[in-house]
Amino acid sequence: MIDLHTHSTASDGTMKPAELVRYAAERGIEVLALTDHDTLSGLNEAEDEAGRVGIDFIPGIEISAEFEPGTLHILGYYTNAGDSALERSLSLLREGRDHRNRIILEKLAVLGYPLELKDVMRFAGGQSVGRPHIADALVNRGYVDNRNEAFDRLLSKGAPAYADKERMTPEGAVAIILKAGGIPVLAHPQYMNLDRDSLSMFVGDLKNSGLAGLEVYYYSHSPEDVAFYGSLAEEYGLLPTGGTDYHGPGGLKRTDIGIGTGDMRVPGSVAEGLKKAHFSGLQSGLGR
Known about the structure:
With 288 residues, the protein is α/β, with parallel strands linked by helices. Helix content is 43%, strand content 13%. The protein is built from ten helices and seven strands. Strands 1-2-3-4-5-6-7 form a seven-stranded mixed sheet. Helix 5 packs across helix 6 (147-155).
């Protein structure tokens, strides 16, 4: 089995990177990518553990980008963790998260759910601290029963304690991944809330900016979605990728690694295509 979209405690997952890798091995995962939000800090630990348990590991990241009417994330595979420009950009994104966190805490206090930053930080295992950790603090205080209730009632977009954050443009996210030697992929396109014609136009435009792949396989994509996104990837010459967005037990996505909600499978050809693009050096030219 293959899973190219997972999260650890380095961002908003509930399992440490090494723990996630060991669980993946137990579940029969053969190729795994760790794609934490706005940080590369969990990759060394995950890669070391993958070597010990015999999993083929692909380093990754997930970057949030500005977009309306929905949500847009760019996955980056095989980025150079030592790239100074990438790290500076990620540091700015994390600073934006920190600013948003303070605003959310202020809103929660007004709403009658006071928390201190130290209450949140105890649940953050890495550099990227965000709403899931605030949700965990709310659960710990007894304000809500679980993360999902925290998001539904207070923290999701449009909820009373929500605050937006600074993001890169989609083109900027693609560019910074390319400059770091990575392969930029548009994640879970259904979350963009575009009709198919508008999505096709957007993907074509972003391809011209260097987009190299499209997440065709995703836990909430229907068979019809997979067929459409697959045809879109083929039309624009993009690498198809896929993953469950696994966040660990109790995480935001109610999925299991490798299988999503039960019947998801990422074909072996997907991982092979991604690895071939990397090892042949195509990542610097794909999508241009």
